[in-house]
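User: Can you write out an input/output pair for a complex, sequences first and structure second?

Assistant: Here is one pair. Inputs:
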Amino acid sequence: MIQKKICMLGGFAVGKTSLVSRFVSSIFSDKYLTTVGVKIDKKPVSVDGRDVTLMLWDIYGQDDFQTVQPSQLRGMAGYLLVVDGTRRATLDVARQLQARATQAAGPVPFLLLLNKSDLAAEWEIDEAAFFKLAEDGWRVVKTSAKTGEGVEDAFLALARAVLPA
Amino acid sequence: MNEELLRDLLHALDLAVVERLPKGGYFLHGWMPDWLAGAFDAAPDAQGRLGGALPFLDHFLPQAQNAWYTGPEARADSGPFAAEVGGEDLLLRASAITLGTRTMLVLERLTGEADTRPILQKAREHLLDTERLTRQIAAVHEPTATVHRLIGDLAQTSLSPDQRGIVERLAEASGKVQAAMAPLPAPPLIRRR
């Protein structure tokens, strides 16, 4: 069985752990529990008739207290950059992490997830920012770990991107 | 140190010590802590395999091997990692050290002060509260500035003496609000017309 390391990267409280829980176990909790260290979950998936086990590295959020280490990113096949649509500053953190990821692992596939689409009325990230990201060549998906919107599609899209042609 | 003393010491410290054998495979010294039971394939006094039970260790082992091959002074620490063992969420740390010619892996469950989750939880909750407060301030900044400006505009119009008195009191109160808001950081989201 092919295994691929996929890292979840983003600022704190953007929903990385919730996205993994939604994708792996179809569960969601409103309660915020901070992640310390790294947690690895496995999810076997089938993409275009090929079986692959995604090793999902849920890495603690980047902030003043903890910095994502290059050693944690090495060997990853791809990553999901997660942004909280209701907090614009998390987009700046995502840009920093994207640069660090490229430095550590090279130009591997990634998707930017604009999470918390269920709170669209409170979003600080507007369409202009969305289009700018697309112009920069970033693939952006709106997701909600709460409702499940876009979650499976995002993970499967990344799985497809990391599998050899 | 004899085996019994070692076992008692490891038990008291709640550590698991695994030795990497020269021909491959791993040997668990001493005892199997309760929190780790079920994570490994083997019984405490038999050769065991590490792979699969704690996926993070598969990632850490190359770093550990680098440290072991470097020499007796070298050490590698994994940093905290979470694992679900026996239905329980554990926060663990692994350290690779060399004792003489023997290559060892020490597994520690982080509890008490070593478990930084409660502190980081509080700190991040405070940060989220601060962010929410900043957004609320941003929502108030522009309307209050607009009100202050409108009061100034009103004061320029013809008013009866009673009306002028009211406007002057409004201007004074609004000025105090502006002065109180001034030191608060203006978030970059405010769009100035």
